[in-house]
Design brief:
The chain is of the alpha+beta class. It contains 4 helices and 6 strands; from the N terminus they run ααββαββββα.
């Protein structure tokens, strides 16, 4: 085996190990399923994430149930923690190829809906959290006030 073949084999094994870690690393609901800091209605971009805050015009359970249905219809998304009855739900959505997990927490407090999407690994989500959050908001239509 040549030196180049060995290097390629090592790189291949390291890539497989990284992919396995990304997919199999434990996820702690106690660390992830938390409400973000209260903010006034608006859109808030951050490194590796996006938060949208809106006033709701319908009962909280209806808003959360609608968002839960929309979230679970999103490819590679599953319920991670919480429930409509709790008033807060966290979902995990994995990227198609590498399986990177992104967390999205949806919470209603009073008449305010907060959707907070963020990545778990890395520094940049390439805008996927913003797109997902905005797509979920579009589903709500008249259940929220426009900005």
């Amino acid at each position: 085996m040549t030196m180049a073949s060995r290097v390629l084999a090592i790189l291949f094994l390291m890539t497989l190990a990284g992919m396995a870690y990304i997919r199999l690393a434990p996820m702690d609901p106690a660390r992830v399923h938390q409400a973000s800091a209260p903010r006034p209605p608006g859109d808030y971009a951050a490194t590796g994430g996006f938060t949208a805050v809106r006033k709701i015009t319908a009962p909280a359970p209806k808003v959360l149930a609608t968002l839960e249905q929309r979230a679970l219809a999103t490819p590679r998304t599953r319920l991670f923690a919480g429930s409509v009855d709790e008033g807060m739900i966290t979902f995990v959505t994995r990227s198609l190829v590498m399986g990177f997990p992104d967390y999205t927490t949806v919470r209603v407090g009073g008449d305010t809906l907060t959707i907070h999407g963020r990545l778990r690994f890395g520094q940049s989500d390439l805008g996927v959290n913003r797109a997902r959050v905005q797509g979920w908001l579009d589903t709500l239509g008249p259940l929220t006030e426009p900005l």
